[in-house]
Amino acid sequence: MKNRIIIVLSVIMLSSALAAQQSSEKLTPLMKSRIADNSQDTKHLVWIYFTDKGDLSVYKQADYTPVSQKSLERRKKVTAPGALPYDETDLPLSAVYISRIEQCGIQIKHRSRWFNAVSAYATAAQLQYIQTLPFVKLADPVVLLKKLTRIEEDAPVTFMKQPDNVYVFNYGSSFAQLNQMKVPEVHNLGFTGQGVIVAVMDAGFNRLSHESFNTMNIIAKWDFVNNDPGVGDSSDMGSGSHGTQTLSTIGGFKEGSLIGPAFSSTYILAKTENTDSETPVEEDNWIAAAEWADSLGAQVFSTSLGYIGFDSPYPSYTWQTMDGNTARITIGADLAVKKGIVVLNSAGNEGTHSTHNTLGAPSDGDSVIAVGAVSSSGTRSSFSSVGNTVDGRTKPDIMAMGSSVVVASTYSNTTYSTSSGTSFSCPLAAGVAALVLSVNPTLTPMQVRDALRNTANNASNPNREMGWGIVNALSAISYFVTPVEGWTMRGSYISGTLFLEWQTTSESNNYGFEPEYSFDRINWTTAGFIEGSGTTIQLREYRSNFALNTSSRKIFVRVKQIDFGGSFRYLPEIEIDNTLPAEFSLLQNYPNPFNPSTRISANIPESGNLTVEIFNVTGERAAVLYSGSVTPGQFTADFTPTELPAGIYFARAVFQGLEGNTISQSLKMTYLK
To answer: How confident is the model at residue 4 (pLDDT cuts 50, 70, 90)?
Structure first.
């Protein structure tokens, strides 16, 4: 019976192949060339593109979302008002189409929602058969690519001594690579990458037991080479020493030895490269990993791999295809940016060529941030790839230290070594991108790129060797002014005192404001009246020193804005806990931007000591706002910088509780004149 089935299937496929000769051609010239150069039994790794996503009615339900909530929230930054934060590229492939492909014996490797395609292993006969399927649009080889050239140490290892009592952390031997980018100054302000999800795509991660990863928050791991959850070394293909080193570069933390710029970020790890020496890299691994990381809400991609031409007979990309629109991996990277992800990639380790670029995909993408390498002295590393792209765009975009970078050892859990290559300048720069988003999470990927490029040390004269220059983290985090918050309100009810403050936009028709409170959101009581005249952005405050209802845990508060004509509207309602703060928190200053003064507040969970200092954008202390003891409740202090110039400032609060626990938090504010 089995033989009969095989014979019938062969007849069907043969008949289909004959029919295909009379139908429109769906095999690309390169695909036909591959078939002609190999035996009929050879299995080719191919892209099979579909014409559409099939029946979409199931996805039109109001509550359907194809990705995680974190991904949706990130995408809102790049989505037009009123539009859905996803499109057809995010919808799953048709299960019917997949089933039909598999029925003819084709082995599917990866499924790409973005490209509406599958990568699969198929013989010549199977490829001829699928041409008869009406939903198949095209079949083309998956391009096989050469790995990023590994670099031997090209510069002597010289460690820079960290000055005493200047920075919060002891960076040990990693001080030079961070100091060059002014990362320690940003860490001093309390920004260490918190709140940002970073996806690191590399050749695996074989020593996550290293001490520099002890505090790292890793939320997801997947091996796209072997299709399993193990990203370390095992019996399957690939070694993870390279990924261990790059991961430690961006997010490791061991005081006195190695600190990455974004050690407080959350991490997603994807193994995308097979390090077996005879095997070229397959571009579909990276694309599958990118779609997976996007669905989990990643905000930054760091890829320390550059993909360029591979020797014949493998189809590959060359310097002539580095135009931002040819390599599928580049198209995928640009699409990730379109979905709200900041994508950074190593520029490559192919050195200089006098007449053309030496870039590797996807660093040629117009939305991808290509990172070149410099030495500790700031000169370009000899191995660092150069631009420009074939269509004339300046590449690389930015530079970071890539010669003799301190990394975690892959042989011991407690030792460190050095490595060189744009493999290491990329995660350093990606860590700075995470810092920029940590300070201002509303920025789009292109705004992050602008902040990194336009504050780098060669921004006035970008070129094909250095791009816009070496990253300056301190300037980058301040490049975009924090937007006016408009109508906002916050409040607390502690020890019998109701405290409210809100910020108003510029209006000349404000007669006044009436704060109202309720315990059931039905019955509301007016608590007072605040005059509302004024045409500038102002801080409004209401404080009531009487007990409202200490038996009620929740207090609901709203503020009525009354115009001179008698009309009114409410600020959005807020909910206040009638309890002491559970933990220390520094609240955003009100108003922001401000002139002439602003209020800085903090929730204090217990008695202790508090220091609040103000720093300018260069990291210099501009003022000590408060230093002394505090009691449980809410601390407030006004900052009036009449003697200081307008610009960006940072407030840093350090709270030490009775048990000796110390918490440091910072915020960014804008002073206008």
So the answer is: very low
